[in-house]
Amino acid sequence: MSIEEKMKEKVQLLKQKDSVLILGIESSCDETSVSVVRNGQEVLSNVVSSQIDIHAEYGGVVPEIASRNHIINIDYVYNKALKDANITASEIDAVAVTYGPGLVGALLVGLNFAKGLAYGLDVPLIPVNHIAGHICANFIDFKDLKPPFVCLIVSGGHTAIVLQETYTTHKLFGSTLDDAVGESFDKVARIMGLKYPGGPQVDRLAKEGKNNIVFCKSHTFDNPYDVSYSGLKTAVINYVHNCTQKGESYNISDVCASFESQAFDELINKTIKASLESGVNKIALAGGVAANSYLRENMTKLAGQKGIKVYYPSMSLCGDNAAMIASAGFYKLKYSDFDCDLTINAQPTLPLDTSKSFLA
Ligand code: KG4
Ligand code: ZN
User: Fold this and answer.
1) Which one of 155, 194, 204 would you pick to mutate in the ligand 1 pocket, going by the greatest count of ligand atoms within 8 A of its CB?
2) Is there an atom of ligand 1 within 6 Å of 198 CB?
3) 3-class secondary structure, 290
4) Which of 80, 160, 236, 322 has the highest CB neighbour number within 10 Å of its CB?
5) What is the pTM of this model?
6) Does residue 292 line the site of ligand 1, with CB under 6 A?
7) Domain 3-136+319-355: assigned CATH number
């Protein structure tokens, strides 16, 4: 019997087991993280080693530097995750790892570490989609949250409104036609000289500013759930350039407040519309941008007025971390069929499987 067939047999046994301990590994961008999670919800450890300070010097993530630092960090992070969880490696039932989307060199470090570990411990390898992981962060924080719910995915690389049908399947309402919302936060912040990553800085400054600059008018799209960020991003960059070229000062807090509300108001309305039209009165936020205070407060307020309950992960689970990957690995193990393929490669542009559209 091949090693993969043996792993598949173990997957079938784990589906029946009451207590499943999964070690998760995440290295898709600039965080090296390893976590131990029981039954998808009980976090025994979640070690995150961030490279933000290293990349801030360059104004963004430098892929080659990210890969090298993952290699340096991963062994220490893995050992600390076991120590914090107070377990030995032999107690792990399966290894879950992000295999995409993300930076290919960065993904390969975590993926190869996971393959070696699964092979050495003789346990199944569960390949996890990073975006599915972000969604599962909500299951860790809200033990009572069960699908279906509408999920707004907002990160550095993704912006989409989906229906989380079951623990492992999604239907697409709509997505960005160009830039991701997090990317536009980072670019707008950079043009104003704010440190990488720009999202948290814009969030902080916006609280002191007024929404008094109209950057661009809202568009109509063929799919009413789609959004676009390149026009808004360019309008803010042009505004800042114009002021600088004329030697005029601009109020950075007002720019942040105006950009932030124009970035989110439409997205909030469309997510609420998705909830009302699907008759699913729960909305969850997922991804790094789910940490944004304007988004959290306004989604909660506006959805609440329509009787919709809003969920968002705690700050430590919004950004990239391995607990969400271990959690997604657990639900994949329990509720779907997959191959334990030790030759699986990193997939930098791996989409979230939304093959079925809500509108179809
Ligand atoms: O999910 P994430 O950690 O990485 C990806 O999978 O992309 O998201 C990172 C993004 C960055 O663009 C960062 O600026 C943004 O999340 N972000 C925020 C906030 N905190 C992080 N954007 C707006 N407001 C925040 N408070
Ligand atoms: Zn992420």
Assistant:
1) 155
2) yes
3) helix
4) 322
5) 0.96
6) yes
7) 3.30.420.40
